[in-house]
Amino acid sequence: xxxxxxxxxxxxxxxxxxxxxxxxxxxxxxxxxxxxxxxxxxxxxxxxxxxxxxxxxxxxxxxxxxxxxxxxxxxxxxxxxxxxxxxxxxxxxxxxxxxxxxxxxxxxxxxxxxxxxxxxxxxxxxxxxxxxxxxxxxxxxxxxxxxxxxxxxxxxxxxxxxxxxxxxxxxxxxxxxxxxxxxxxxxxxxxxxxxxxxxxxxxxxxxxxxxxxxxxxxxxxxxxxxxxxxxxxxxxxxxxxxxxxxxxxxxxxxxxxxxxxxxxxxxxxxxxxxxxxxxxxxxxxxxxxxxxxxxxxxxxxxxxxxxxxxxxxxxxxxxxxxxxxxxxxxxxxxxxxxxx
Length: 340
Description:
- The chain is of the alpha/beta class.
- It has two domains: 2-119 and 288-307, Rossmann fold, CATH 3.40.50.720; 121-283 and 314-332, Dihydrodipicolinate Reductase, domain 2 (2-Layer Sandwich), CATH 3.30.360.
- The protein has helices at 10-21, 35-44, 53-59, 72-81, 96-108, 124-135, 158-161, 165-181, 279-282, 284-298, 308-327, and strands spanning 2-6, 27-31, 48-50, 62-65, 86-89, 114-117, 141-149, 185-195, 210-219, 224-230, 238-245, 249-252, 331-332.
- α5 (96-108) packs antiparallel against α11 (308-327) and α6 (124-135) crosses α8.
């Protein structure tokens, strides 16, 4: 299969390398506005670089859209209207309005082979817990608590260019809550701030403080989900989800590399197994399985693991959380539709 990669930045390169590692004989074609970046990535994955995106779209059987969110409003429509199977990085756009417009383009084109990159749907831990929930092993779900603590803070200005901590970071947890439970959010109360200004674990400044955020989601059945995020955690990359039910409780992301420790830990506190350092470390398997799922979608073997309509729902909640944080008010969302 000939698979195009539009966008040779961090995520485009990550997806390309995962695809190149599969034993499926894929041919990779790469385009980036910076042709030298496309050439470099193409060389690394034994592919070919293209100067023009339209030429690439004519030459491939499927395409990965991994340009920054602000550029997807141009790249995504061209890909779906070409009738190709499309993988698009999350979020579809920086706002729910823009995301709805992109989803509408795919629907109007009759292109149902579109997958949005919420990789936790392909994470083994999330899948195992979803199966347990579906069997009723946890009983009535009482509470979900999600932790999203990054290790190193992003570059200065990243939270602005990425759409903010709700749209860029906690949107993963919002989508995971929806997908795990089969429920949708009906209201959200959120807060965000920049705290401190302490040096990072690597010794560099946090650039005017650390971005932190919280969000309380109420789901359609009354279940509460508490989401917490920090752009800095000196001990490592800690992204977990804890689910409490009337019969049992489970934690996703709790293993020998989770950066947690007790005050009674002896020695320096450095774990025997080094703590996770970033998302490509913690979710390495999920990203591989995400690309495998896309290949199966492109071959017509299974439906999309994350269609655009579900990505729009997550974006709507992220937008509502940002509004709540700005105003201090509870934001109510429209009741979920049965076909959502």
